[in-house]
Write a structure and sequence with these properties.
Layout lengths: L15 E10 L3 H7 L8 E4 L8 H4 L4 E2 L8 H11 L6 H20 L6 E2 L2 E2 L1 E2 L9 E2 L6 H14 L4 E4 L2 E9 L2 E9 L5 E10 L20 H8 L4 E2 L4 E8 L7 E2 L3 H4 L3 E3 L7 H4 L8 H15 L4 E4 L5 H7 L1 H8 L10 E10 L2 E3 L11 E3 L4 E2 L12 H22 L22 H15 L3 E2 L1 H18 L7 H22 L8 E2 L7 H4 L4 E5 L4 E5 L12
Parallel strand pairs: 1-2, 1-11, 2-8, 11-19, 18-20, 21-22
Antiparallel strand pairs: 3-7, 4-5, 6-7, 9-10, 10-11, 12-18, 12-23, 13-14, 13-17, 15-16, 16-17, 23-24
Length: 552
């Protein structure tokens, strides 16, 4: 007997049933790469809660990092990644991913991706934290769109792969300690219980938990919450990376202003026109993202101004417009010419570094469940992701998880049978405004759990989240918006609990009350896991710190 952890708005016994060898939750780069790694004789079902092209992968501007220049070397990329990672990366994972990078980029080219070229060879850019030019990009600042176009076309051509769009994954289904599939609600259709030999979680990020974010509306941390409710171990949930430069126009939606602008020579100046980054770090605008974000916040506090500015006015105007057409178009909507006007920016939630704990093959702590991409904590990023390493991770781990799940499905002895699904008892509750609670939660997280944190604010945040949860979590919703809100509350609690526990500053986690890193006490991973039987979270801090450049 399987029991979903949500209170469902329908009789689960009447749901349709679907059987597949491999179920992939999420249609971003990691999910599609995983699907293309599955053996062609095995059935694959990809479910994504919006259109296939609507993911963090599609919105990636900067590019993919890879050692492609003959004068570059793997050791240099490894060193840059470890340097950015706040002394918390797994060096073996870093080495594996980076050495596999060129092969994965070449694979994308063979699948039809049109990366930008210069004199017949791939054009390579440079971003913060990298010591060399090694970033491939496409259509200037639309790398994610071009990569996703190519891999979507390839995926749709595979006869063994079926794709469900506008399909929300309500919950994972487990039985006898193993993942057996998931409960899916498609827009305008009858709910479906999908039974799978192996399930791969590739659901992406969680930036929408915060008020200021570069992420699309779909990035509500659903995969993190699905895994957490199923008893899967999450790791390093305190590490949310804030992108330093998000277009800040009061009342308008936020847009990412790619780090590649700073790679091309853009300068950060304050409201007085003063360039300030060299005063905070000798690398200036090319310092890692955590340092740039923290520096911007401090300069904003110093000048009592709501934002800082990116200044490209000293660069060649034609080159700027040619190199960054997407950003030029986005800024033009507000009357800004990026080559002549300063661009108002401030940090925004960008990339969830913490996530589902996985090994080098993408295996989670729940048998039958694999994971890849932003939903995971692989050990590559440590406490701070190096620019343009995320699409690289999605490609590498998508391939690993797809291959491993395919092999497990072929070798496994489990039979594909339809098990009874217990339907929770209806508990009516008073209606409330979901949108209002969501806005309140996002504002709370942005104000108290942002770039700078301290114990008093974190405690206020967790108290408020528990207050929200007291009436949101027991509610029986019949909409994606309601389920998303429940997921966001669970995820927010995991982030804040972890941030409160880590009493130091490391990478993207900055505690103003503990402003320095403490390797002796805190060079270790922090895990959090739901006791499914008891229904309470368990947080674990390893007794011993990590060995140099190793994982826990």
């Amino acid at each position: 007997m399987l029991t979903p952890r949500y209170l469902l708005p329908f009789n689960a016994r009447r749901a349709l049933h679907r059987f597949t060898d491999i179920l992939i939750i999420g249609g971003g780069l990691a999910g599609l790469r995983a699907a293309n790694a599955v053996a062609s004789h095995q059935s694959v079902l990809i479910v994504t809660k919006d259109q296939l092209a609507e993911s963090n992968s599609s919105y990636a501007q900067g590019g993919i990092a890879g050692v492609l220049d003959p004068e570059d070397c793997f050791e240099s990329h490894v060193e840059d990644t470890l340097g950015a990672g706040g002394n918390l990366c797994d060096s073996e994972i870093v080495d594996m991913v980076i050495r596999e990078g060129p092969r994965r980029i070449e694979e994308l080219v063979n699948w039809g991706t049109k990366f930008d070229q210069l004199e017949g060879t791939l054009s390579l850019g440079r971003e913060g934290g990298h010591s060399r030019e090694r970033i491939v990009h496409a259509r200037g600042d639309a790398t994610g769109q071009e990569v996703m176009r190519a891999i979507i076309d390839r995926t749709r051509d595979q006869a063994n792969i079926d794709i469900w769009e506008n399909a929300f994954t309500v919950d994972l289904l487990t039985h006898e300690g193993r993942c057996r599939g998931a409960l899916i609600v498609q827009q305008g259709k009858q709910p479906v219980i999908v039974w799978a030999k192996e399930t791969i979680l590739c659901s992406g990020g969680a930036g929408q938990v915060f008020r200021e974010s570069t992420n699309p509306l779909v990035a509500t941390g659903d995969g993190h919450a699905l895994a957490y409710r199923a008893g899967v171990q999450l790791r390093d949930m305190e590490f949310m990376q804030f992108h330093p430069t998000v277009l800040y126009i009061a009342g308008a939606s936020r847009s990412l202003i790619t780090e590649a602008l700073r790679g091309e020579g853009a300068r950060l100046v304050d409201c007085h026109g003063d360039r300030f980054m060299p005063a905070y770090d000798e690398r200036g605008e090319l310092a890692p993202r955590d340092i740039v974000s923290q520096s911007i916040i401090r300069q904003m506090e110093k000048t009592k101004h709501s934002n800082v500015y990116l200044d490209l006015t000293h660069l060649d105007s034609d080159h700027v417009h040619q190199r960054f057409p997407g950003i030029a178009k986005a800024c033009a909507k507000f009357g800004l010419d990026i080559a002549r006007d300063r661009i108002p920016v401030r940090p925004g939630a960008h990339y969830m570094i913490g996530g589902v704990s996985i090994d080098r093959q993408g295996r989670t702590t729940l048998p039958g469940l694999w994971a890849a991409g932003e939903v995971t904590s692989s050990g590559l990023h440590g406490a701070n992701r190096l620019a343009s390493n995320s699409l690289l991770e999605g490609l590498v781990y998508g391939a690993h998880a797809g291959t491993s799940a395919s092999r497990a499905a072929a070798e496994g002895s489990q039979k594909m049978v339809s098990l009874p699904l217990e339907h929770p008892v209806h508990r009516p509750t008073e209606a409330f405004d979901v949108a209002d609670v969501r806005v309140s939660l996002k504002s709370l997280m942005g104000r108290l759990v942002g770039v700078e944190r301290h114990a008093e604010g974190l405690q206020e945040a967790i108290d408020s989240i528990r207050s929200f949860a007291a009436y949101v979590m027991p509610h029986q919703f019949d909409s994606v918006e309601g389920w998303e809100l429940q997921n966001m509350l669970l995820l927010s609690a995991c982030i804040v609990d972890s941030a409160l526990a880590r009493t130091e500053s490391r990478g993207v986690h900055y505690r103003s009350d503990f402003p320095v890193a403490d390797d002796h006490a805190w060079r270790r991973h922090l895990t959090i896991q739901m006791d499914v039987e008891g229904g309470r979270p368990q947080m674990t801090v390893p007794l011993a710190p990590l060995a140099p450049n190793a994982s826990a």
